[in-house]
Amino acid sequence: MKNIYLIGMPGCGKSTIGKIISTEINRNFIDLDEYIVNQTGKSIAELFEVEENYFRACETVCLKKISDMDNMIVATGGGIIETPGNDEIMRSSGTVIFIHTTPEKIMENSSLHGRPLLAENKNRIFELFERRYEKYKSAADYIVDNMGDIKDALNKIKDLNC
């Protein structure tokens, strides 16, 4: 069975939704950021300290490894669509679902602590959203809103029968 890739902004619910949905539809779950840490032996912050492009290169290498697996629910990092070609890697090995929520909702519901691109200025979430929104839409096979009760988003994903 092909993979399901969850894409979207930091704090939109990808990891939470991925963990829950994986048990409900009997698939394995991988958080791409955790996988990168395990593969490199460095934290995301340490990889970003080298430079963002270094982190993005590690991200793509790990995404390619995961794309060779089957039956996975993959919560990607928020910037996965920043690297050209990552959308094709995901689409060629699975279904891509954009978990959509607004920056305002992210700010009110999420701890953005530990996210390198937001460490200095939490309001940068608005800039990232503007820069990434069309890329998310373009990369996605489906868009699922996560604006209220997470159960609604879970049910929408299950109804897709991916």
Percent helix, as a range, is: 40-55%
Q: What's the overall geometry?
A: globular
CATH homologous superfamily label: P-loop containing nucleotide triphosphate hydrolases
Number of helices: 8
Can you put this structure into words, describing what you see?
The protein has 162 residues and is of the alpha/beta class. The protein has a single domain, classed as Rossmann fold (3-Layer(aba) Sandwich). It is built from eight helices and five strands. Helix 2 packs across helix 4 and helix 3 crosses helix 4. The N and C termini lie close together (9 Å). The model has no long low-confidence stretch (mean pLDDT 90).
Quick structural gist:
This protein is of the alpha/beta class and 162 residues long. Helices cover 52% and strands 15% of the residues. It has a single domain, classed as Rossmann fold (3-Layer(aba) Sandwich).
Characteristic terms for this protein:
8 helices, 52% helix, alpha/beta, Rossmann fold, 15% strand, globular
Provide the fold topology.
Layout: E1 3-7, H1 14-24, E2 28-31, H2 32-40, H3 44-50, H4 52-67, E3 72-75, H5 86-93, E4 94-100, H6 103-109, H7 124-139, E5 142-145, H8 150-160
Parallel strand pairs: 1-3, 1-4, 2-3, 4-5
Helix pairs in contact: 2-4, 3-4, 4-5
